[in-house]
Amino acid sequence: MLSLSWGEIEIEGVGRVKDAMLHPGGGGEWDWRVTGTQHSPGIQPADVEPLLAAGATTVVLSRGQQLVLQVMPETEQLLAARGVDVHIAETREAMRVYNLLADAGVRVGALLHSTC
């Protein structure tokens, strides 16, 4: 289960992080600096690769609480090409979808942005 406040996501078994990367079997902090991600053009293919490497068959991408974070078309194309179901939503909705899928036993991964 996950909970959210501005600037903080709490992950059961992990603790509090600013942004989260979750995948089948684990998760933790999502550090955008690793791939150079910015709000625009947004979540890159390199950001989702760790989720796929961990065996995610469904990916949830959050656009932030104010929908500022974008998702690059190339990221959506990569996921489609690999046959991965993708859900893109505002962070609270993304967390709701992630929790539902994880509770149902789906091999789900997520990138969650806690602020704008």
TrEMBL record:
Subcellular location: Cytoplasm
Keyword Cytoplasm attributed: yes
Keywords noted in UniProt: Cytoplasm
SUPFAM superfamilies named among the record's database cross-references: MTH938-like (SSF64076)
GO cellular component: cytoplasm
CDD domains (alphabetical): Mth938
PANTHER family: MTH938 DOMAIN-CONTAINING PROTEIN (PTHR15811)
Full protein name: Mth938-like domain-containing protein
